[in-house]
């Protein structure tokens, strides 16, 4: 890849989600570097059904766009840096990753695109570090902060330092900030980015260009699927896409407890339960409706209907729906807790 088509991505905050995205992108880069088969698709593209409409269209449209081939991972502690180094050592032939501790401004300055992955309450302190706001001017900033809206990020970026003598913001500084605005895209992936099976939703600010949006789509298609939504839908999608892996894990865990009580080994039961959930999900992704799938399995007079009736008696349907609603409400106030 020549220099003109090569860019740098900085990840500000390599916690669970930031690391998942980083390793998903690196794994995809390694796999895509291998020779394509006769049908013109990489193994990863075939596995994820990249022949399908929207995804294939995005891949075609980003062919001429500069894409990240260099990565900078920003962490706050020595332990986090050591953890990343150990994990990166396991990836052979991956693009270069520079680990930076406590030097956000330098990392942002060196980047073309920045992925903002700090804790929502740390937004102001993260981008408020000396030099960070200036370094972000004119660049693409992708936020994965739950509950933090694009206007809130824009507001944090516009908090220029007042003059010590007049108490007012320097007009030239404000003009310079306005002349080179940061382009902000908000995204919510999930931890399945580690295995490139994330579901990501995105929405963008008014000054984002089609090329900006296509690049963001390309980044997250590399770790799963992407859906564009409106800003008003974001909190609900944060709960539905970002939080439900924990819901599903709890459901699997409950099945395992039952299986162990019935005499099965937990390790074997986990494989069976997880594979069964994966199979059901694949059927629904192929177009099967949940109620139709349920009816096909719950045959008259069979054992499945007895289990379903017990779940209904214990109000599983209402409990799960209420949990999602509560989760959405909680997501909506995360941004209000910014320090």
Give a description of the structure:
The structure is a single chain. The chain has 339 residues and is an alpha/beta fold. The chain contains 15 helices and eight strands. It has helices spanning 16-32, 43-47, 53-61, 78-88, 104-109, 123-127, 132-136, 150-157, 171-179, 210-221, 234-261, 266-285, 290-297, 303-313, 316-334; strands at residues 6-12, 67-75, 97-101, 113-116, 140-143, 183-188, 198-204, 224-228. Strands 3-2-1-4-5-6-7-8 form an eight-stranded mixed β-sheet, sandwiched between helices. Helix 11 packs antiparallel against helix 12 (266-285) and helix 11 packs across helix 15. The longest helix has 28 residues, at 234-261. The radius of gyration is 23 Å and the shape is globular. Mean pLDDT is 85; it is low at 37-52 and 160-176.
What is the structure about, briefly put?
By secondary structure, the chain is an alpha/beta fold.
Q: What integer value in Å does the Rg equal?
A: 23 Å
Could you give the distance between the termini?
A: 42 Å
Shape: globular
Looking across the biggest beta sheet, what order are the strands in? 3-2-1-4-5-6-7-8
Helices and strands, in order, run as EHHHEHEHEHHEHHEEHEHHHHH
Hey, roughly how much beta strand do the residues contain?
Answer: 5-15%
Strands, total number = 8
- Major sheet characteristics: 8 strands, mixed
Sheet/helix structural class: alpha/beta
Mean pLDDT value: 85
Instruction: Summarize the amount of helix as a percent range.
Output: 40-55%
- Oligomeric state, counting identical vs distinct chains: single chain
């Amino acid at each position: 890849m020549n220099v003109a088509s090569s860019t740098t991505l900085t990840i500000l905050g390599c916690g669970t989600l930031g690391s998942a995205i980083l390793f998903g992108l690196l794994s995809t880069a390694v796999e895509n570097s291998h020779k394509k088969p006769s049908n013109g698709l990489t193994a990863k593209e075939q596995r994820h059904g990249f022949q399908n409409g929207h995804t294939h269209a995005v891949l075609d449209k980003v062919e001429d766009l500069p894409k990240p081939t260099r990565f900078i991972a920003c962490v706050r502690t020595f332990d986090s840096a050591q953890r990343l180094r150990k994990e990166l050592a396991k990836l052979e032939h991956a693009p270069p990753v520079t680990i930076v501790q406590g030097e956000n401004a330098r990392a942002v300055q060196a980047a073309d695109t920045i992925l903002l992955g700090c804790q929502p309450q740390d937004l102001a302190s993260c981008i408020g570090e000396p030099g960070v706001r200036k370094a972000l001017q004119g660049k693409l900033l992708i936020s994965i902060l739950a509950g933090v809206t694009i206007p809130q990020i824009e507001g944090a970026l516009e908090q220029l330092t007042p003059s010590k003598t007049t108490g007012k913001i320097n007009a030239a500084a404000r003009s310079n900030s306005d002349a080179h605005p940061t382009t902000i895209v908000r995204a919510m992936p999930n931890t399945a980015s580690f295995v490139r099976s994330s579901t990501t939703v995105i929405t963008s600010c008014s000054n984002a260009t089609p090329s900006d949006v296509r690049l963001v789509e390309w980044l997250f298609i590399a770790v799963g699927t992407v859906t564009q939504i409106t800003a008003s839908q974001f909190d609900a999608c944060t709960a539905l896409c970002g939080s439900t892996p924990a819901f599903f894990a709890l459901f699997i865990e409950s099945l395992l407890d039952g299986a162990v009580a019935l005499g099965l080994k937990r390790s074997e039961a986990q494989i069976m339960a997880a594979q069964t959930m994966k199979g059901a999900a694949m059927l629904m992704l192929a177009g099967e409706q949940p109620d139709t799938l349920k009816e096909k399995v719950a045959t008259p007079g069979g054992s499945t209907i007895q289990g379903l009736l017990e779940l209904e008696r214990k109000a599983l349907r209402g409990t799960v729906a209420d949990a999602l609603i509560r989760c959405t409400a909680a997501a909506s106030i995360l941004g209000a807790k910014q320090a």
